[in-house]
Specification:
One of its GO terms (biological process) is porphyrin-containing compound biosynthetic process. Residues 11-20 have a biased composition (Basic and acidic residues). This is Corrinoid adenosyltransferase. This protein is an alpha/beta fold. It has a single domain (38-192), classed as Rossmann fold. It has helices at residues 2-33, 51-64, 82-90, 112-130, 143-148, 154-162, 179-184; strands at residues 41-45, 69-73, 96-100, 137-141, 169-173, 187-190. Strands 3-2-4-5-1-6 form a six-stranded parallel β-sheet, with helices on both faces. The chain binds adenosine-5'-triphosphate and magnesium ion.
């Protein structure tokens, strides 16, 4: 019995090894085919949790390679977040510039003029980063809302992104991305909202939600 079992195991191991070899051949062929080197536009959208954290995760990944990064947050909540606090603590060490929209964006847009001015000011920082040859990665966190609510001009945003330095990558996050953003993006991840603990009554937690 024991002998039979170990033979089966050997057979399984052999099968596994063959399957992995076939998989590796497919992966290697894919790697071989992808040879273009240029910056890309990444759009992280959808209603699920993980858009801003993904954007910041990529910034930290790039910083680990010593890349110059820029971050503009288009909606600044009233609560401070761990990712921004940490970024600010690293400022002396890390090659990163950070800007947040000056005022708390009002969802009910009681004061459209004030929000528009804040959006324009934040966009001026984004534009500068998008024109800077030395910046390799630009995160435009929650930019989607500025376009959805027309605080920024779509054509201006698109043409500035298109005219950026060739090697520069741009990450755009936020829900409800307009079709034009889907169009300009090279990589789109749409995060679905399958479950969120908040809906089961779990309070937002520091280090997890902000
Ligand atoms: P995160 O910052 O955690 O990556 P996000 O950027 O994908 O989240 P936003 O739409 O910007 O999500 O909302 C930010 C806040 O709302 C976070 O505290 C997050 O936990 C919470 N949140 C995100 N998605 C949901 C959801 N589907 N239901 C309830 N709360 C959510
Ligand atoms: Mg977010």
């Amino acid at each position: 019995m024991r002998q039979w079992e170990s033979e089966m195991e050997e057979q399984d191991k052999q099968k596994h090894s063959e399957r992995m070899q076939r998989k590796k051949a497919v992966v290697d062929a894919g790697i071989e085919k992808a040879q273009i080197e240029r910056g890309i536009v990444i759009l992280i959208t959808g209603n699920g949790k993980g858009k801003t954290t993904s954007g910041f995760g990529t910034v930290y990944r790039a910083l680990g390679h010593g890349h110059q990064c820029g971050v503009v947050q288009f909606i600044k909540g009233t609560q401070s977040t761990g990712e921004v606090t940490f970024l600010q603590q690293c400022m002396g060490l890390a090659t990163v510039q950070y800007h947040a929209m000056a005022t708390g964006f009002t969802w009910n847009t009681q004061n459209w003029d004030a929000d528009k001015a804040a959006a324009d000011e934040a966009w001026s920082h984004a534009r500068r980063l998008l024109q800077d040859e030395s910046v390799q990665l630009v995160l435009l966190d929650e930019l989607t809302y500025m376009l959805k609510y027309k605080f920024l001009d779509m054509e201006d945003v698109l043409s500035t992104i298109r005219a950026r330095p060739e090697g520069q990558t741009v990450i755009i996050t936020g829900r409800a991305a307009r079709p034009e953003l889907h169009e300009i993006a090279d990589t789109i991840s749409e995060i679905a909202d399958r479950k969120h603990a908040y809906k089961a009554g779990v309070k937002a937690q520091p280090g997890i939600d902000f």
